[in-house]
Amino acid sequence: MSSKEEVQTAPAWHAAYPAPSNPDPPGLSRSQLLQGIRQGRKDFVLVDLRRTDHEGGSIRGSINLPAQSLYPSIRTLYDLVSAAGVEHVVFYCGSSRGRGPRAAGWFEDHIRLRGDGSMKSWVLLEGIKGWAGAGSDFTRLMDEYDEKVWQQTKKD
Predict the structure, then answer these.
(1) What is the DSSP letter of 18?
(2) 1 pLDDT exceeds 50?
(3) Handedness of CA 127, 129, 135, 137 (dihedral sign)
(4) Which of 30, 49, 131, 146 is in Cβ range 3.0-4.6 Å of 99 for a Cys bridge?
């Protein structure tokens, strides 16, 4: 292929930001999260990082902060959750193999920068796909759950 015929690809959305210090932040299992929700714990916040793939529902109580616009908002997110006494921030996306770990890593870096030893950043292992595919104990705790979307996801 000549240079004129080469296809130009845009850099990945996250290329504009530094890589997190820890590319593999701590993971939280869906069972651990389910237990925390059932116990009525109020010391955590869930951050759904999906943007255009935000369909089929989200885990009850989540806030939607698309990963593509998160990095410039990390300081504000930290200030809000810190003022609210939140100890755990749990990030998730579709499968939590890209956006989730990246966001949790960035937030972990910010926590460290602030010298905060009481807050922890997590990634929800297997993301919303794992949550939605784990059965009714989990899907009952989803807002706007649409079974058709998740059945289609299983086929893909």
Answers:
(1) P
(2) no
(3) positive
(4) 49
Q: What residue type is assigned to position 57 of the chain?
A: G
Separation between Cα atoms, residue 28 and residue 18, nearest integer Å: 24
- Strand ranges for 2-155 from DSSP E: 27-28, 44-48, 58-59, 63-64, 88-92, 120-124, 142-143
Strand order in the sheet with 120-124: 27-28, 120-124, 88-92, 44-48, 63-64
**Is 27 buried (19+), middle (13-18) or exposed (0-12) by CB count in 10 A?**
middle
- Residue found under tokens 């237990």: 35
pLDDT tens readout for residues 117-151:
999 999 999 999 999 999 999 999 999 999 998 88
